[in-house]
Amino acid sequence: MLHDLYVALYCVASGFTASGIAASLYRLSVKKRAETSFARMAYLIVMVVAGPTVLFENAAKAWRSKSCTGLSFCVAASIAAYWSLAIGLLVLQIATTVG
Asked: Can you give the residue range of the structural domain that contains 94?
C-alpha cells in the first residue's frame, strides 16, 4: 500500500517537474504574446504540459496578495496536483517504454 503512495507521489513530482521545464522553456523562447494563429496554437499545445506550473504560480500570487480565499487556493493546488499526476504518468510511461 505504501509503495503505491510513493509511486503516485513520484508521478506528481515528475509531472510537475516536466510542467515547470516546459513553462520555463516557453518563457525563454517567446518574448511577446502569441498574435498569429500558429503562435496561438503552439501556446495552447505548450500549456497542456505547462498548465500545472502556471496554474499553481498564479494561485500562489493571488494567495500572497490576499486576492483569493484559502479554499480557492486549495482547489487550484488540487487541480494542479491532479494535472501533474496525469502528466507524470505519461512521463513515466514514456520512460519505461524507452528505457
From this structure: 2-98
